[in-house]
Write a structure and sequence with these properties.
single chain; Short transient receptor potential channel 4-associated protein-like; TRPC4AP
């Protein structure tokens, strides 16, 4: 397959006139014949040799010429491999520098050898060599595994060290799909998976898993180690792409986008694809819950783990080391189906114990992430059923003390759910575990699987003592699928939560996970179960005594406190017992007022609870709490409720509404719905009007609120899930939400409950088209 151009390339010292080695002459000849140069290495060898030392190319262009000439598929490719190894030795040093140096320093460095390799068409040539067997019907001698591995390793090194290489490979969809076919070979799996992961990370359009040839049989052929690494690739293909622009995270933009693209996203299609692979979820559950060798050195384990991770930040790199340690055993045995064999294999005993543990931790991080994404997808019900059936929760409960939360971790920076981070494996493990618990418990009756049999019996006893019906989901829970041992997973989490350092950002994830257990229809038994374990006092200590400054942690604690106290007389009594001085109460109020976006859920809880308690004044216990509780007394004053209402409306607008702050709009609606139920809606609307004039901005608040409610109608009326969440959060049926918004938006300016009636004609601006771009 060598072209005429190559056959005419002169060797150094040849001067016969028939040889066209002058570069200018060659370019001109190419223009005339239409057979111009299309590779950097088609430059005459004499010129390359002449420039090599001055340009510090280290012979790479000439080696690429030889690589091309020797790579004819009809040859045995032995010589090709020799040239490839020579090139690899020149490039691998730069890749190792990138891996071992501080990333910021490495990215600012230059990698001349890799740059030269790409400049002279080396990347394109390796892709061509790898794909040649697929481009011809002729039967050629198969490439050796070692040759394929070296090609893939060089391509990965180029992706690391040379800007633009990864994107150029990602643009070749045929090559990306071809790479998946190489994963069937265990000997080339690691190199292939590493390269695919890097490419998919920059690919503009998400790959369609359905396009991968024989995907189901490919995945089923993976052993447990390969499947765990495949999860790193899956995580890119089943997660929604982060648009990276805060403006596009607004509900207005999201709704507009959903109207344009009403069909499922590619990520959702890919999620359905992997769920249809037989046995896939069951194997992930086994990976997530498989036990790790018990004979680990304990004292310096965490520090060792951190030290190794400073440069081993890729599970696939770590796999390569593990594979090297086990290579001597390959000829005599294949990998055991026993999941614990990986951690106990004698061939690996000369590796540091911390590396063996981090290996397993990195696997679980990837698996838990994939399960978490699937739990939040369209097939949530199907995934929930399978995770319960395959006993994921009892398995994780067993590992909690042994691996997931061996001991408290050092403080770290809080990362968003979709944010890439370079946390250590141990920290990543904890975050993914907490995210999984949050997704598993949120608005689903399977949340009771987080308890053991004794704890479920306790819930039943609480209901019986309160003379209320037992929660149906508790009665229907399959006891064979719940946690085993002395404590369930929720109780274990509460235990470590109370021991977490005051300034630890893990508090955010822990509070979110516990809050998800309480979300949904308010359950008195669930609340009392947690109150008995000191959760309320712990939250108040964090908010008041430790004077937490983190907005994220504060928000998660206020949300949790709102769910824990809502309608619960015992919770308000315990609150008043803890907040027993005016100084503590003022600190608590100060924390609420520091950011209503973060604290509005506790405001909603207090308003709703006050309204219910005021309707139960025939009960002496209720009257006692109403008269003694500082919190309820404070909210009972109408001027305080109006102050919250004014601020809640004033800090948001249609253009700034997000999933984070839309709760402010709904809390303001709760205040007005309760006012409407008592015939006081005109009083509240008039108070808002007076506030506008006092602030010398007539029409500002009410026009903004009118637009917010118009958006509310468009956002909620067609979203069943969001409607259910609203009903559960306030115990107010959605029809009442809907009619309240309707009367507030009435165009009748004579209506005493219509917003338009309280805006003077000169300041009326309620027809704004906020659905414009």
């Amino acid at each position: 397959m060598a072209s005429a151009e190559w056959s005419e390339s002169p060797r150094t010292g040849e001067t016969r006139s028939c040889r066209v080695w002058n570069i200018v002459t060659r370019i001109r000849q190419g223009q005339i014949t239409g057979r111009g140069m299309n590779r950097g290495t088609q430059i005459p060898e004499a010129l390359l040799n002449e420039r090599d030392k001055k340009a510090k190319w280290y012979g790479i262009p000439v080696l690429l010429q030889k690589l091309y000439e020797s790579s004819d598929p009809n040859s045995d490719l032995l010589q090709t491999h020799v040239f490839l190894k020579e090139i690899s030795s020149l490039l691998s040093k730069e890749a190792m520098t990138f891996v071992t140096e501080d990333r910021k320093t490495a990215q600012e460095s230059t990698f001349p050898n890799t740059y030269t390799f790409d400049l002279f068409g080396g990347v394109h040539l390796l892709v061509e060599i790898l794909m040649r067997p697929t481009l011809t019907t002729e039967k050629n001698k198969p490439m050796s595994d070692d040759l394929i591995k070296d090609c893939l390793s060089i391509l990965y090194n180029c992706c690391l060290c040379t800007e633009g290489v990864t994107k150029s490979l990602a643009a070749r969809s045929d090559f990306v799909l071809f790479l998946f076919t190489l994963m069937t070979n265990k000997k080339t799996f690691l190199q292939t998976a590493t390269l695919i992961e890097d490419i998919l990370g920059v690919k503009k359009e998400m790959i369609q898993l359905d396009d991968i040839p024989n995907l189901a049989s490919l995945v089923q052929s993976f052993d447990q180690q390969q499947l765990a690494n495949f999860c790193r690739i899956l995580s890119v293909t089943i997660s929604e792409l982060d648009v990276g622009n805060d403006d596009k995270h607004t509900l207005l933009a999201k709704n507009a986008q959903q109207k344009k693209n009403s069909s499922p996203s590619q990520a959702e299609i890919n999620q359905a694809t992997v769920l249809n692979i037989p046995g896939f979820i069951e194997r992930l559950c086994k990976l997530a819950t498989r036990k790790v060798s018990e004979n680990t050195r304990s004292s310096n384990f965490l520090q060792e783990l951190e030290d190794w991770y400073t440069w081993l930040d890729n599970a696939l790199v770590l796999d390569a080391l593990m594979q090297m340690a086990s290579v001597e055993a390959e000829h005599s045995s294949t990998e055991s189906s026993d999941e614990s064999s990986l951690a106990t294999s004698p061939q690996r005993h000369h590796l540091p114990q911390s590396m063996k543990i981090v290996h397993e931790i990195m696997y679980k991080v990837e698996v838990l992430y994939v399960l978490c994404v699937l739990l939040m997808g369209r097939q949530r019900t199907q995934v929930h059923k399978m995770l319960a059936e395959f006993k994921l929760i009892p398995g994780i409960n067993y590992l909690f003390d042994k691996l997931i939360w061996r001991k408290p971790t050092t403080n770290h920076v809080l990362h968003g759910q979709n944010q890439n981070c370079d946390c250590s494996p141990e920290i990543s493990m904890k975050i993914q575990f907490l995210r999984l618990l949050q997704s598993f418990s949120d608005h689903h009756e399977n949340k009771y699987l987080l308890l053991n049999n004794q704890e479920l019996n306790e819930l039943s006893a609480i209901s019986m003592m309160a003379d209320i019906p037992e929660v149906e989901a508790v009665v229907n829970t399959d006891r064979s699928l719940v946690c085993e041992g002395k404590r369930g997973l929720l109780t274990r989490l509460l235990s470590v939560m109370k021991k977490e350092p005051a300034d630890s950002s893990f508090r955010f994830w822990q509070a979110r996970a516990v809050e998800s257990f309480l979300r949904g229809v308010t359950s008195y038994a669930d609340q009392v179960f947690l109150l008995r374990r000191g959760l309320l006092e712990h939250i108040l200590f964090c908010i008041i005594d430790s004077e937490c400054k983190s907005r994220d942690v504060l928000q998660s604690y206020f949300d949790l406190l709102g769910e824990l106290m809502k309608f619960n007389l015992l919770a308000f009594k315990r609150f008043n017992k803890y907040v027993d001085t005016e100084e503590k109460f003022q600190i608590f109020l100060s924390q609420i007022n520091s950011s209503l976006v973060d604290s509005n859920m506790i405001v909603r809880c207090i308003v709703l609870s006050l309204d219910r308690f005021e309707s139960q004044t025939e009960d002496v216990k209720v009257v006692e709490v109403l008269s003694e509780c500082r919190l309820l007394s404070y909210m009972a004053r109408v001027e305080n409720r109006l102050a919250f209402l004014f601020r809640l409306i004033n800090i948001i607008s249609v253009e700034t509404l997000t999933q984070e702050n839309v709760s402010c709009l709904n809390t303001s609606l709760v205040i007005l719905m309760l006012a409407r139920s008592k015939g006081k809606l005109p009083f509240y609307l008039n108070a808002l009007r007076e506030k506008e004039y006092a602030e010398k901005y007539p029409g500002c608040i009410l026009n903004n609120f009118h637009n917010l409610l118009r958006f509310w109608q468009q956002h909620y009326l067609n979203k069943d899930k969001d409607r259910t969440s609203l009903e559960n959060s306030a115990c107010i049926c959605f029809s009442y939400w809907k009619t309240t918004v309707s009367v507030l938006l009435s165009p009748d300016r004579t209506s005493p409950v219509a917003i338009a009636s309280y805006i003077d004609e000169a300041y009326l601006d309620i027809d704004k088209d906020f659905m414009e771009e």
